[in-house]
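Worked example

This section walks through a single chain of length 114. The input is the sequence exactly as stored; nothing has been trimmed or padded.
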Amino acid sequence: MSIAVPNDGETTELTLLMSREEFETSEIYPGDFARYTSHLFDEPMSATFKSKTARLYWDLFGCIAVLCRADDKDCPNRYAPGVYRVKDGIGLDPETGKPLTPVRKVDPETYFPL
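Given that input, the structure is written out below as tokens.
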């Protein structure tokens, strides 16, 4: 799946991998406003990916959650676009995974900006 993420006034295109089962469960459609977080950033690993070979796939996958459907034009205004760390909501550079300066933060439960 490919998503576009605002990044310093431009757009960064990210290609994301997810299993067929996760994709079919998520029901993500073009134009939906989604939140993505890479598994590389301190997220607890699924037991399925603990072997050395499987770990490589875990590092490629990420978490995608649909926050707003494309036809709900007002919904995205409630959120801050970007990539945020799951455990504390710190904004991350979508290309490097490093925290942004100045720090941006969202509530890790609601995804609303703080």
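What to look for: The radius of gyration is 14 Å.
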